[in-house]
C-alpha cells in the first residue's frame, strides 16, 4: 500500500527542519502576478504543480487570489500533501474566523447583516449554538432524507431523457438546479414554497447570490472576454450586494414563512428568529444548493466516464440489495459496498470544496512527508485538497478513478478522504468545523447512483469545467428492462 512510505508520527519529529520555500514578490505586483498565473497564464492545478516542482516541496509560500483590492493580505503557506493538510482540521492550532472563502470575506449585507455559522471560529460562543441548531434541524428531518430526495428525481431524469432524444444531449448542470432547490426547500421547511413564483425563481436567485460571494475565486472562461477585463470585473473589487438584495429578501421571506417549526426551535435554543432564518438561508443556498451544484456533476462525470463494466457492477449490486431489502432504505444503502466506495472515490479525486484556510493561532511546526516547517503565529495556512487527496505517497494510482478503492481493507484509507473539512472517519461536532451535513451528503450521493442504476443499464457523458467545478452533458441513456 502506498501509505506505508509516510512517516509515523514518532519518526516525523526527526524530520529535518526546512525553511518554507517560495516568496510573495513585491507588494501589489506579487499578488497580481500570482493571480494572473492562477486564473490565466497557468490555471489552477498547473499553478500549484509548477511551484511544487520548482521548490521540490509540497509546502511553500505563494499569494492566493483574489489579492488587491479585495483581500488586503493574500500571503499564504500552501499545503499540498496528505500529511500536512490535516493541521487545518485542528481548531486548537488554527483559527477559522472569517476564512470560509479564503483571504477575503464577502459583505455581511449578503447574509442579512450577520456573520453566519460557516464564518465563525469554534471559540466564538455563537458557533456552538448555531452548529447545534444545524444538528437539530438535520435530526428533525432524518425521516425525510430518502423520500424527499427520491421524489425529485423522476422529473430530473424525464427532462434529461427528453433533451437527449430531442437535442442529442442534455446539460445536467442547468437541468439539475430545479431539483436541488426543491430538495433543499422541502428538506428544511418540510413543504414546498407557498408562493409558486419562488419555486421557479429560487434556483436562479441562489445562483446569482452565490456568484456575488464567490466571483473573486472564479473565471468565466469566455473566449470573447479579454482576461484583463474579466480580472477587473471579478477579482479587483467586490460586486455590490445591492445587485441581489431584493431577490435575497424574497427567498428570506419564503423561508421565514415556511420554516416556522424550525425557527421556533431556533428561538427555543436561544437564537433570534431573524438570525436563525439568515442562517437557514445560508445552509440552504450556500452549503446545500451550492454544494450539490459541484458535488453531483463530478460524481456523474467520474461514474459516467468509468464505462459499462462498472455500470454493470453497480446495477447488479444496487438491484440485488434493493430487492433483498424490499426497497431503498437506510439499511439497504448501508449494504451497498461498491456504491459507497464509488461515492468516496469521487469525493477523493474531485473534492467539491477544494480550498481550506486557517490562521496559525501560535508559532508551530508542521510536517510534510519529508520535512518539518516552522509557521509563525498569525500566518495564513491554505490547503489545496485536490492535491492532498491525490497524494502519491498515500494513494496508489492517485490520478485514476479506482471504483473499488475503499472496499474491504481499502476502508482503512478513508481517513485520507478530507472533502468535509475533516477526515471521513471523524464526525462533525459543535467544537470542530467539519460539515454538519457530512453523512447526508454521502447519503444523497448514494441515492443518486441508486436512482440512475434502477432506471438505466448504462449511460454516456461528456465533461468539461465551469466556474468552480465540472460540467456534464448526458449523451445517451440505456433504459433498463429490470423491474
Ligand atoms: C451538498 C454538498 C455539501 C458539500 C460539498 C459541503 C461541504 C462543506 C465543507 C467543505 C465545509 C467546511 C467549510 C470550511 O470551513 O472550510 C462545510 C461546512 C458546513 N456544512 Fe456542508 N457541505 C454540503 C452540504 C451540507 C448540508 C446538506 C448541510 C446541512 C444541511 C451542510 C452544513 C454545513 C455546515 C453547518 C457547515 C459549517 C460547519 C461549521 O462551521 O462548523 N452542508 N460543508
From TrEMBL:
Keyword annotations: Heme, Iron, Lyase, Metal-binding
Pfam families: p450
Named cofactor requirement(s): heme
GO BP: fatty acid metabolic process; sterol metabolic process
GO molecular-function term, one example from the UniProt record: heme binding
Keyword Plastid part of the UniProt annotation: no
SUPFAM superfamilies named among the record's database cross-references: Cytochrome P450
Binding site for heme: 435
CDD domains to which the protein is assigned, alphabetical: CYP74 (cd11071)
Family listed: Belongs to the cytochrome P450 family.
Protein's recorded name: Allene oxide synthase
Amino acid at each position: 500500500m502506498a501509505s506505508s512510505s509516510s512517516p509515523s508520527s514518532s519518526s516525523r519529529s526527526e524530520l529535518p527542519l526546512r525553511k518554507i520555500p517560495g516568496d510573495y514578490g513585491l507588494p501589489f505586483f506579487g499578488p497580481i502576478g500570482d493571480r494572473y498565473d492562477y486564473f490565466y497564464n497557468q490555471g489552477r492545478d498547473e499553478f500549484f504543480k509548477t511551484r511544487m516542482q520548482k521548490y521540490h516541496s509540497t509546502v511553500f509560500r505563494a499569494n492566493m487570489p483574489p489579492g488587491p483590492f479585495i483581500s488586503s493580505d493574500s500571503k499564504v503557506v500552501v499545503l499540498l500533501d496528505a500529511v500536512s493538510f490535516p493541521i487545518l482540521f485542528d481548531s486548537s492550532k488554527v483559527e477559522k474566523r472569517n476564512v470560509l472563502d479564503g483571504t477575503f470575506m464577502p459583505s455581511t449585507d449578503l447574509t442579512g447583516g450577520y456573520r453566519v455559522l460557516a464564518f465563525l471560529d469554534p471559540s466564538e460562543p455563537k458557533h456552538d449554538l448555531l452548529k447545534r441548531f444545524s444538528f437539530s434541524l438535520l435530526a428533525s428531518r432524518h425521516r425525510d432524507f430518502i423520500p424527499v430526495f427520491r421524489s425529485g428525481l423522476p422529473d430530473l431524469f424525464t427532462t434529461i431523457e427528453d433533451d437527449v432524444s430531442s437535442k442529442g444531449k442534455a446539460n445536467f448542470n442547468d437541468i439539475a438546479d430545479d431539483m436541488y432547490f426543491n430538495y433543499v426547500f422541502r428538506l428544511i421547511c418540510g413543504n414546498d414554497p407557498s408562493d409558486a413564483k419562488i419555486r421557479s425563481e429560487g434556483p436562479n436567485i441562489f445562483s446569482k447570490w452565490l456568484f456575488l460571494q464567490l466571483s473573486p475565486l472564479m473565471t468565466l472562461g469566455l473566449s470573447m472576454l479579454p482576461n484583463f477585463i474579466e480580472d477587473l470585473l471579478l477579482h479587483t473589487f467586490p460586486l455590490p450586494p445591492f445587485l441581489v438584495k431584493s431577490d435575497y429578501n424574497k427567498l428570506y421571506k419564503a423561508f421565514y414563512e415556511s420554516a416556522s417549526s424550525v425557527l421556533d426551535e431556533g428561538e427555543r435554543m436561544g437564537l433570534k428568529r431573524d438570525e436563525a432564518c439568515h442562517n437557514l438561508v445560508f445552509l440552504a443556498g450556500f452549503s446545500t444548493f451550492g454544494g450539490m451544484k459541484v458535488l453531483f456533476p463530478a460524481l456523474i462525470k467520474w461514474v459516467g466516464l468509468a464505462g459499462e463494466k462498472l455500470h454493470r457492477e453497480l446495477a447488479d449490486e444496487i438491484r440485488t440489495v434493493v430487492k433483498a431489502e424490499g426497497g431503498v432504505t437506510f439499511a439497504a444503502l448501508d449494504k451497498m459496498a461498491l456504491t459507497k466506495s464509488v461515492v468516496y472515490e469521487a469525493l477523493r479525486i474531485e473534492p467539491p470544496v477544494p480550498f481550506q484556510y486557517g490562521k496559525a493561532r501560535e508559532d508551530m511546526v508542521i510536517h510534510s512527508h519529508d520535512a518539518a516547517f516552522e509557521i509563525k503565529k498569525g500566518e495564513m495556512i491554505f490547503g489545496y485538497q485536490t492535491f492532498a487527496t491525490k497524494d502519491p505517497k498515500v494513494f496508489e494510482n492517485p490520478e485514476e478513478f479506482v471504483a473499488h478503492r475503499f472496499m474491504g481493507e481499502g476502508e482503512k484509507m478513508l481517513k485520507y478522504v478530507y472533502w468535509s473539512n475533516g477526515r471521513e472517519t471523524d464526525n462533525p461536532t459543535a467544537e470542530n468545523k467539519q460539515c454538519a451535513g457530512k453523512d447526508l451528503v454521502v447519503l444523497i450521493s448514494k441515492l443518486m447512483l441508486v436512482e440512475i442504476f434502477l432506471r438505466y443499464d448504462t449511460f454516456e457523458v461528456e465533461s468539461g469545467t465551469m466556474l468552480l467545478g465540472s460540467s456534464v452533458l448526458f449523451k445517451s441513456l440505456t433504459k433498463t428492462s429490470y423491474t
